[in-house]
Amino acid sequence: MQNKDVLIFEVRLPARQVVFFQALLQGEDGLAVARCFDPQRIRQQLWTSAAQRDELMGWLANVPESIGLKILDEWIWRAGDSRTA
I need a surface site. Which of 2, 3, 63, 70 has the fewest CB within 10 A? Predict the structure, then answer.
């Protein structure tokens, strides 16, 4: 896999929902990897392949509204990108 194939979604959700959200994502075997992005644990990065973008977007659209998920950004990973530090 090359850099251009790695897609990152940045999402925000309430801290009390992080573990539940990550458990739901783990149930979607290989769809994305969640990474905590800030000390308050409210922003997460979801790393996936560009080929799985539509599948991940469909899954995110069906996450229950009660979780409070908000998609903040989406980009292709590049080495040295400050958004992934």
Answer: 2
